[in-house]
Amino acid sequence: MKISVIGCGYLGAVHAATLASMGHTVVGIDVDSSKVEQLNKAMAPFHEPGLDELLKDGRTTGRLVFTTDFAAAADAQVHFLCVGTPQSKTSDTADLSYLMGATKSLLPHLAKGAAVVGKSTVPVGTVETLRAVLARRSDVLLGWNPEFLRQGTAVKDSLVPDRLVYGVPGGKGAAAGAPVTAVLDSVYEPLICAGIPRLVCNFATAELIKSASNAFLATKVSFINAMAELCDASGADVSELSEAMGLDPRIGNRYLHAGLGFGGGCLPKDIRSFRAQARELSVPSVDEWMGLVDSVNLDQRSRAVEVAREMCRGFLSGRTVTILGAAFKPDTDDIRDSPALDVAQQLAAAGAHVTVTDPKAINNAWIRYPQIRFEASTKRALEGAELVLLLTEWDEYVSLSPSEVGTLVRRRMVLDARNVLDAEAWRSAGWTVRGLGTGASVVAAENGEAKRADRKKHAAR
Ligand SMILES: NC(=O)c1ccc[n+]([C@@H]2O[C@H](COP(=O)([O-])OP(=O)(O)OC[C@H]3O[C@@H](n4cnc5c(N)ncnc54)[C@H](O)[C@@H]3O)[C@@H](O)[C@H]2O)c1
Questions:
Q1: Closest residue (by CA) to atom 31 of ligand 1?
Q2: Is 235 a pocket residue for ligand 1 (Cβ < 6 Å)?
Q3: Which of 76, 123, 130, 337 would bridge 263 by S-S if both were Cys, CB 3.0 to 4.6 A apart?
Q4: CA atoms of 169 and 148, how far apart (whole Å)
C-alpha cells in the first residue's frame, strides 16, 4: 500500500520507517528541508535508538523516501497526520495550526477515496474541525489513530505496540466507520495477525484515550513525588515506599519512581490541554486535578534547587556546580520542557557557575540556552565541581564510579534528583548524598543539621 506520513519529527519519522518495514511504500513529508535531507541519507535527525537502522532498511528496499513536496503524496491511499500540537503561546490549549496547515496543504493532492488519519495528540473535537476543512471532499475517509510510542523506545513501541486504537465515524460496529476500519486493518495487518489488541471507537473516545492515558501517567508521577515530600518531612524513604507499593499488582511500579518529575514535548502540554478541554466541557474536577498534578511536578524543580542550596550551606552564588543530564529523560536528545535545564537555569540565576553535560542533548541545548556552559566530556564537566547534580538518569551516569568521580571534583557532594545512585556506595567513597524524598538514610552525618531544618520547614507549612 502507498502511504504518506505528514510531519517527520519524533513521532512521524519512526512511524514512516515502521510502515516501510512492514512492506508499505512510504513517503514522509515535512516542511523542514534539512530534516528531510538527513532522513533521505538514512540518518535520524534526532537521537532515537534503532531508528538509523530502520531508516537504512527503508532506503535499501527503496520503500521509504522523504520530501518537502506534498504532490508526492498524490497517489497514496492513506495519509497519516503526525505534525506537532504544542501548547499555545498564550493559553493552556493545544496549538492546532500545524495540523490545519498540513491538512490544507494535503487537500489538493488527495486521490479519490483516500483516507486521512490523524496520529497527533489532539483535544476532543479536533476531528470535527478537520472534517470542516475537508468538507468539499465527501469521498475522503477520516480516521483517528492516536500514538502511544515513547521516545527512547519508540522503534520497539512502534514495531510491537501495546494496542491499536482506531477512532472512526460512528464508533465500533457503525456502518459509517467500516471503510476506515478496513483501511487501517490493511495498514496494520502484520500487527493484527501478531495479536496486538485493536480497539475501535468513536472520534471523541479516540481523542480522549490518549489525553486520559497521559493524564494518568502524569498523576502517578506527581502522586509519588507528593509522597516524596511527605517522606522528607517524616524521615521516611520514598524509594522503599514506592518499591513496596509497586509490588501490589493493582498499583504496579512503573511511573512510580520519585524524583525530578516529568518534562518533554508531550506530558506537560498534554495535561494542560486536558485542563483546557475540561474547562470547555464544564468538568471542573478534571481541571483542578490536572492543575495539582502540574504544580506538584513543577515544584519538584524548585525543591531540587532548594536542596542544592542547603547542600551549599545556603549560598549558591559563586558555587561551581556540575549537572549530569540535559535531555528531558535518558535515551533521547529532546530538551523540550526539560526539568534538568529548568533547574540549571534556576541555579545559574541564583549565581552558581553551572556546567551541564549530556551524552546526546548538548547540541540541542546550547543553541537554546546560550547563558549556560555546556561540556560534552563528562570528565571535564566534573572537574572542580563543588556540587554535582544528577538530573537525567542516563545509564552512564548511574554507573559512574564514586571514587573515580571523587578525584575530579573539589567537594564530594551529590544531589541525586532521580534517586538512582547506589547511595551507600557513594557514601562509602566519602560523598555526601541527597535525593528527593529519600529521607534520613542517604543524608550524610555532616548534613544532619540541614536535614532537621528542612523537616522543620515542611512541618511549618
Ligand atoms: N514525541 C512523542 O513521543 C509522541 C508520542 C505520541 C504522540 N505524540 C504526538 O505526536 C505529535 C508530533 O509530536 P513530535 O514529538 O513528533 O513533534 P516534532 O516537533 O518532533 O515533529 C513535528 C514535525 O512536524 C513538522 N511540520 C510542522 N508543520 C508541518 C506541515 N504543515 N507540514 C508538514 N510537516 C510539518 C515539523 O517540521 C516537525 O518535523 C504531537 O501531537 C505529539 O503530542 C508524540
A1: 102
A2: no
A3: 337
A4: 21
How far away, in angstroms, is 320 Cα from ligand 1 center?
A: 37
The domain limits of the chain are 2-201, 235-459
Q: How far is the CA of 415 from the centre of ligand 1 (A)?
A: 34
Contact 239, 419 (CB under 8 A): yes
- CB-based burial label for 171 (10 Å; 0-12, 13-18, 19+): middle
Closest-lying ligand 1 atom to the alpha carbon of residue 148? 6
205, three cell numbers? 473516545
Answer for the pair 371, 377: CB distance below 8 angstroms, yes or no. no
- Ligand 1, atom 32, lies closest to the CA of 102
**Is the Cβ atom of 84 under 6 angstroms away from ligand 1?**
yes
Taking the whole predicted model, whether its pTM rises above 0.90 is answered as yes
Active site residue 266: yes
Closest CA to 357 of 337, 383, 386: 383
- Take residue 102 and report the three cell numbers written for it: 498540513
For cell 480516521, name the residue: 143
Ligand 1 centroid to residue 11 C-alpha, Å:
6
Looking at the chain, how many residues does it have? 461
Q: Which fold has domain 2-201?
A: Rossmann fold (3.40.50)
Class of domain 235-459: alpha beta
- Cβ 165 under 6 angstroms from ligand 1: no
Among 446, 450, 441, residue whose Cα is nearest residue 422: 441
